[in-house]
Write a structure and sequence with these properties.
The chain contains two helices and no strands. The protein is mainly alpha-helical. Helix content is 92%, strand content 0%. It folds into two domains: 82 residues; 35 residues. The termini are far apart. The model has no long low-confidence stretch (mean pLDDT 87).
Length: 118
């Protein structure tokens, strides 16, 4: 029996060394994979940052153009209102009257006694 234990011992040592070698190789592969993932993540982050920057620049340019158009149109409307105060007063009065009438109509619709909550 002692002979079988002695013959198993070199075989176990060989298996252990083989397993340790495989584990070392796996660790190297995992390190390579981690580096690859890290590099790819950095590339994706850079791409996303660049796209966000481009989107922001485009949105800012559009907002600036829109604001400029609104300013010019508001300036044109105020110039017309200054040049024609009578017409402006009449337009504002008609808009106010239409708003008042719309309010009355909504009030009458809401005043239906069958719709009361109490």
């Amino acid at each position: 029996m002692a002979d079988t234990n002695k013959s198993d011992s070199p075989h176990i040592d060989d298996i252990q060394k083989t397993l340790e070698k495989q584990i070392a190789e796996l660790r190297k592969e995992i390190t390579k994979i981690n580096r690859s993932i890290s590099a790819r993540s950095a590339e994706m982050l850079d791409d996303a940052s660049e796209q966000a920057s481009d989107f922001y620049e485009t949105a800012a340019a559009r907002a600036s153009r829109t604001a400029q158009q609104l300013r010019s149109q508001a300036h044109a409307v105020s110039d017309v209102a200054r040049e024609n105060p009578g017409t402006t007063t009449a337009v504002v009065a008609v808009i106010g009257l239409l708003g008042f009438l719309a309010g009355l109509a909504v009030g009458q619709l809401m005043n239906d006694t069958s719709r009361r909550w109490y």
